[in-house]
Amino acid sequence: MARAPGQIDVSKNEAILDAAVEVLAERGVTAPMEDIARRACVSKQTIYNHYGSKADLMRAVTARRVHEITASLEAPDAAEHPAEALADFARGMLGSILTPRSAAFMRMAMLGALEMPEVAAAIYEAGPRSTRRRLAEFLALETGAGRLACPDAQEAAEFFAGMVLGSYQTAALLGVERNLDAPAIERIATEAAARFMRAYAP
What is the per-residue pLDDT across 50-83, written as a single tens digit (0 to 9) for each? Predict the structure, then answer.
């Protein structure tokens, strides 16, 4: 089946997103699109045809990661097992910030925020804000079902994210003490979920 104008195949799209993360982690948000295109083995025009602007490309990069983090909240049995869904969500957040490439990407985005505020805003809207919004929607549904009691779901989402990330995110952004192994991540995720469930028990 022929692709619509401006549409690219999945493998090429993934190559572009991967290249964008790598190049921006190395050179920051001001890195030219030519470098991303070269790394992805596509033309610069191909990227612009599909995304339109660097801000749109960064939004897509960030949205892909958010989808991976929030997938547990959309699983078929997530609603009936909120503690497990929250623990999976926590594992995703910790895994994201502790990945050297992801941390470097966010670090460079922050460094380039003043120079390219539209790109920084796109990353924030598609990343942290979208993640918290999706979590808040899940908590609101659980509250409606009587499994949780979150009078302000958005605030509760911020509390949970803060409890999970703690100082680990700051350490990752600074490039120090990224030493959480799999058992530590598992312990933090399950404990955060358990404490949250007790705090917001109906």
Answer: 898 888 998 998 898 899 899 999 988 898 999 9
Tell me the whole-structure pTM to 2 decimals. 0.84
Domain containing residue 62? 10-199
| 115 domain-assigned | yes
pLDDT digits (tens, 9 = 90+) for 102-155: 888 888 888 888 888 888 888 888 888 999 999 999 999 999 999 999 999 999
CATH of the domain at 38: 1.10.357.10
Cβ-proximal residues to 80 (8 Å cutoff; 6+ apart), any chain: none
Domain count, the chain: 1
Q: How far apart are CA 133 and CA 114, in angstroms?
A: 25
How far apart CA 93 and CA 118 sit, in angstroms, is 24
